């Protein structure tokens, strides 16, 4: 599917890609919609509450849980990069607002 998406992305003229054609069946579409919903619920500012909502409201396989933990780590790494590139003056203000939390959920 990724190869097909990339091909359509490179070949597009109208700026739009029909994901329905790429996802090809209802099962793939259901998985896609599930993960869009998960990613919409969890953000860097609400990881704990977002994980709680997902855990309590969605059926997750062990594989789904591993993917979700990888997503959390991905957000954590991107936040660390953002914080590292943030100007020092702005960083002082941010640290005061967020307290002692250092931005890491796990190693």
Compose a concise summary of this entry:
This protein is an all-alpha fold. It is 72% helix and 0% strand.
In terms of topology, how is this protein built?
Elements: H1 2-11, H2 19-23, H3 26-41, H4 47-57, H5 62-85, H6 88-98
The biggest beta sheet is recorded as: none
Average pLDDT rating: 82
Distance between the termini: 31 Å
Spell out the helices and strands N to C.
HHHHHH
- Helix and strand composition category: mainly alpha
Radius of gyration computed on alpha carbons: 18 Å
Q: State the helix count.
A: 6
Question: What are the defining features of this structure?
Answer:
mainly alpha; 6 helices
Description:
The chain is mainly α. The protein has a domain at 60-107. Helix content is 72%, strand content 0%. The chain contains six helices and no strands. The protein has helices at residues 2-11, 19-23, 26-41, 47-57, 62-85, 88-98. It is flat, with a radius of gyration of 18 Å. The two termini are 31 Å apart.
